[in-house]
Amino acid sequence: MAFVISSEALQTDAALALITALNEELSVIYPEPGVKHFRLDPEEVAPGRGAFVIARMAGVPVGCGAIRVIGLARVELKRMYVDPSARGRGVGRRLVLALEERARQLGATRAMLETGTRQGEALALYERCGYRRVEPFGEYLGSPLSVCMAKDLC
Fold this sequence. Notes:
By secondary structure, the protein is α+β, with helices and mostly antiparallel strands. It has a domain at 3-108: Aminopeptidase, CATH 3.40.630. It is 27% helix and 33% strand. Strands 1-2-3-4-5-7-6 form a seven-stranded mixed sheet, with helices on both faces. The longest helix is centred in the N-terminal third of the chain and has 17 residues, at 13-29. The radius of gyration is 14 Å and the shape is globular.
């Protein structure tokens, strides 16, 4: 089944539902006390500063992702999620490609991201998309369950 990816505001019902599902899934994968889900603020994905996208199949929201500018010519992929019912259909890869295109439009030449040590499917997706492991950066410094990755966009 075909899907469509479009830019949307972070505060829409669809966006909030997908992020809630993501946070619930992460809470199951990482149940330890003190593990935090790194947040994303609406101003970080405002025009000129980032982007938030939603993938829909037959009009139903099935995935999301965001980018935020984190430095000179650098963006971070954030809040990537695909509903379990839509996994294995290329939605995640298309979300990454859509976010990379929006990053280039913002002038970014490098995309970075953080995922977790227990998210094997996410790690494999990012590696297939050309991301390679890098040293932890920013808020992920000292986070033992974080895996940071990056990809040059030029």
